[in-house]
Amino acid sequence: MKLAVINGSTRRGSTWNSMDLIRQELKKYAEVESKEFFLPDAMPHFCAGCFSCFFNGEDKCPHSEAVRSIADAILEADLIILTSPVYALDVSGQMKALLDHLCYMWLSHRPDPKMFNKIGLTVTTTAGAGLRHASKTLRNSLKFWGVKKVFTVKHAVAAAKWSGVPEKNKSRIKKNAEKTAKKIAQAVKNADRLPNPLFRSFMFGMVIRAMKKYDWGERDISHWKAQGWLDGKKPF
Ligand SMILES: Cc1cc2nc3c(=O)[nH]c(=O)nc-3n(C[C@H](O)[C@H](O)[C@H](O)COP(=O)(O)O)c2cc1C
Q1: Cα three-residue angle 58-233-206, rounded to 5 degrees
Q2: pLDDT tens string 122-134
Q3: What is the dihedral of CA 36, 37, 38, 44, to 10 degrees?
Q4: d(CA 18, CA 30)
Q5: Is any atom of ligand 1 closer than 6 Å to the C-beta of 9?
Q6: Which of 25, 69, 132, 225 has its CB 3.0 to 4.6 Å from that of 181, i.e. a possible disulfide?
Q7: SS3 content of the chain, % helix, strand, coil (to 5)
Q8: Which residues does 171 contact at the CB level (< 8 Å), separation at least 6?
Q9: Which CATH class is domain 2-194?
Q10: Which of 12, 21, 86, 92 most suits a substitution to test ligand 1, by most atoms within 8 Å of the C-beta?
Q11: Contact yes or no for 149/104 (Cβ under 8 A)
Q12: Residue 72 CB neighbour total at 10 angstroms
């Protein structure tokens, strides 16, 4: 099983440990090969808002070198894991900066068919509040990249660091990791047989209608034409 793990922090703290427990559990079900990134080290830039990725191609992004290595790992993976501690009731700024750079591969722009049978996992931890909001931010990107199924793990750890997490919480996190890993292993194994998410089918129909009606970026339209999606070819 190929993993792309993108951590929204450089700390091996509660979030990373919660993710790593799942990764260790996955090894019970399959051979695990992991490509791992820590933000902001792996991609230290903010989106410049230049629209180059949308209009001229993602290779024209001023930060394409850093973005490409992460995007390539995402495209190669069976399981894409996005992790973030909760900062100000949402994901960390460095994670959001990466997600901004990957909007070109949203369903509304140039979704890559390689994404359509992938599984996603979001892992967030907080001292107390903000899990729902932060998870939703991560889930949104995975869904809009077109992945088939997304698992969500979120823990209120009541601590500033992993060593400070009460043992009772740690054992709850460990049990959750065992259950989640089992479900993920099954989903990855049967990914091509899982039902297509309604949201994705709905988005495809909507984008096709919008592209025919409105002035859309030429680069995006060429992508959809090249895939045959504007001529009735089914994407999945
Ligand atoms: C800058 C910053 C902002 C934070 N914002 C919140 C917050 O809004 N709500 C909350 O309950 N905890 C907040 N926390 C606490 C962390 O979410 C929590 O300790 C988390 O488990 C840390 O994860 P880590 O050990 O992986 O770094 C914040 C921590 C930092 C450093």
Answers
A1: 65
A2: 999 999 999 999 9
A3: 180
A4: 19
A5: yes
A6: 25
A7: 55, 15, 30
A8: none
A9: alpha beta
A10: 86
A11: no
A12: 12
Closest atom of ligand 1 to 83 CA is 26
How far is residue 99's CA from residue 136's CA, in Å, rounded to a whole number? Answer: 13
Mean pLDDT over residues 27-36, rounded?
Answer: 98
Contacts 24+ apart (CB under 8 A), 41-47: 41/10, 42/6, 42/66, 42/69, 42/70, 43/67, 43/70, 43/94, 43/97, 43/98, 43/101, 44/94, 45/97, 45/101, 46/97, 46/100, 47/97, 47/100, 47/101
Residues 72-98: tens digit of each pLDDT: 999 999 999 999 999 999 999 999 999
Going from the Cα of 192 to the center of ligand 1, the distance in angstroms, rounded, reads 37
Q: Does the Cβ of 164 fall within 6 Å of ligand 1?
A: no
**What's the angle, vertex CA 38, arms to CA 32 and CA 41, rounded to 5?**
145
Read off the pLDDT of residues 38-52 as tens digits, 9 standing for 90 and up.
Answer: 999 999 999 999 999
The pTM of the whole model exceeds 0.85: yes
